[in-house]
Amino acid sequence: MNWKAVSWHTPTLSWPRATPARRLLMAARGPRLPGEAADAELCRLAAVHAARRAGGRLGDTLAVAEKLLADPAAHPVVLTFLENLQHLVSHDDAAFTGERGVVAGLGQRSAAAWSALHAYWRAVEVWCRRTGVPLDSAADLLAVRNDRMRTLLWTTNRTLPAGRRIGHSHAVRYERAGGPPLAGQPRAAAAGG
Length: 193
Fold this sequence. Notes:
The protein is mainly α. It is 53% helix and 3% strand.
């Protein structure tokens, strides 16, 4: 066989060999990351790049997510991507597509996952209010302008209609108190609980 040298700039990830998280990032036309990157980071970047109004590839990325949901092994990764996307659009920033735009592009399996995510986060919010867990204002979160920090914060927290925010730390507390985890995404176990 005659092998040819390939640089990391050359797209070598073909559809069959790319992981589900990389497939989502490729569909969103996100950055090509050399070496190993965690699925969580790839999903976060895929959500941000797909949802951008300027040059975003939301439709293509949602089509890939729908296709991946047919594979049970890819379900946790796609759920992570959709959750990041749901958090991101909750902030109602003009640079990103709104929730209506996302919902319009969801396939049947993705729409079911989207609804399950909303139900889970609504349960976390209700639990926080019922038990007196404070929900801080989202104003400081929304004021972050550093792109890397905003990507991390905006995809792990959501802005509630009343201007408060809720995030992964609330979900961990909810699950540790006995709240049911989102199927395939137990946060308390991941947090060492």
